[in-house]
Design goal:
By secondary structure, the chain is α/β, with parallel strands linked by helices. The protein contains 7 helices and 11 strands. The strands form 3 sheets. Strands 1-2-7-4 form a 4-stranded antiparallel β-sheet, with no helix packed on it. The longest helix is centred in the middle third of the chain and has 21 residues, at 144-164. The protein is elongated, with a radius of gyration of 21 Å. It starts with 17 loop residues before the first strand and ends with a helix.
């Protein structure tokens, strides 16, 4: 059974007459993306953005020819079409926030987690990877360097992936979300916090949607996060924290 979150790879190509100008800014409930679309020689040009949009708004006309919705520009769920010499910048809003995902992995213990991480990165246009936490593996340090190596390979492929979907996350952001767990199989409790367990708390607290924690290896870092929240917060705040969690562990599924 695959450990990667099920998602379909979007295959829409962005036309050479379309250009995305920036990545979305910050965490927000409904991310927006700028898109430039140009009618060449007054012909019709369709610019695809590869995901279902909640709204498309003309933000800046760049041509002398008027860009009028229903006349020289229109949109569908996944594209903008311009014609009659219209060239403009559009603001495209996603329908909703992508699922937030944190991965706990004993990567390097055997090959399956390396394979699963590569596959999950391919789906990272449809999910938002909020953390990758290398966890305990017997007799070896946690596999942080393996995760970093896979992300370096992802960086080489990223320009091509962005041609299909502008929602793929930039590599430095993902590298900043790699947080280590303990190299020893320590019990949870006071004094046993890690960068990984603290990162889980921070990501759950800041998420506007539930956070899926995918347990590919040990669940200790999640348990430590829950211990810390339970110890430091009121019963109602702890319950609210728990309600934002969606935990999937591959061992229980088998």
């Amino acid at each position: 059974m695959t450990k990667a979150t099920a998602a379909f790879l979007l295959a829409a190509s962005i036309s050479v007459a379309c250009s995305t100008m920036a990545r979305p800014a910050g965490a927000q409930q409904v991310p927006t993306f700028p898109l430039t679309c140009t009618s060449t020689n007054y012909g019709a040009q369709t610019c695809q953005f590869g995901f279902d949009a909640g709204s498309v708004v003309l933000s800046k006309q760049l041509s002398n020819t008027a860009c009028v919705k229903g006349s020289t520009w229109s949109n569908s769920a996944r594209s903008v079409t311009v014609s009659g010499g219209c060239r403009a910048e559009f603001t495209v809003a996603m329908k909703s926030e992508r699922p937030h995902v944190i991965i706990l992995t004993d990567i390097g213990q055997d090959p399956d987690d390396e394979q699963s991480l590569i596959r999950t990165l391919l789906y990272s246009n449809d999910i938002s990877i909020r953390g990758i936490v290398p966890t305990y593996r017997p007799g070896k340090p946690v596999g942080t360097s393996i995760v970093q190596s896979i992300l370096s390979a992802y960086a080489k492929d990223l320009p091509r992936l962005l041609e299909h979907d502008i929602r793929y996350t930039n590599t430095p952001i993902l590298l900043g979300r790699v947080k280590e767990g303990l190299s020893s199989n320590s019990p949870i409790g006071a004094g046993h916090d890690t960068a990984g367990s603290n990162h889980i708390i921070a990501m759950v607290d800041s998420a506007p949607v539930p956070v899926w924690v995918l347990v590919w290896g040990g669940s200790r870092e999640l348990a430590q996060a829950l211990y810390k929240v339970k110890s430091a917060r009121s019963a109602s705040a702890y319950a609210a924290f728990q309600k934002k969690l969606r935990v999937y562990t591959i061992s229980w599924s088998q």
